[in-house]
Amino acid sequence: MMNQQLVEELEKTIENIPNFPKEGIQFKDITPIFLNPQLYKDVIHDLAAFSRDKIDVVCGIESRGYLFGIAIAVALDVPFILIRKQGKLPPPFLGQKYDLEYGSAEIEMRTGQLKPGQRVLIHDDLLATGGTTEAAALLVEKQGGVVSQFSFLIALKDLAGEERLKKFNAEVHQILSY
Ligand code: AMP
Asked: Which residue intervals define the domain Phosphoribosyltransferase in the entry (predicted)?
């Protein structure tokens, strides 16, 4: 499928839910993609093409980053590493705190899975403020990984997430921008 066709198909499929989970948020629901196996395959094809021969590992961010991240890794025949929310992983792991609108959160990654010098794709379904993705990239760097690429299905342009990722000097790809 040509990319423009993929964009149009995704625009029709992803549902926008206003004021969820709170007032003022336009929630993008990607779950209808999974009702259409051909569309899912086309998404993976696009995301895998972006990263082919450019990365050694995919790191996916909990939880919707797993839905596509694992399939990208399998398509490229490279390992997949989970970046999880705090408290889910058994030790040993490393954590990285980041700020939320109110308060802070932390993500964690098992140590010993990522090898120093490996080129990493960090993948999530959606880039909003970039806070989560930035924390994931810092976590990868803490372990000696090279943040080479970021990919998303969707980037919300108004929130300037991409600005925040510039310091990593990595390629950024999204299929859809809103
Ligand atoms: P951020 O750290 O602000 O870039 O937020 C990114 C994370 O929050 C991603 O894992 C998204 O799945 C989720 N997220 C943020 N905003 C939205 C939204 N409008 N619709 C769906 N998911 C969102």
From this structure: 36-145
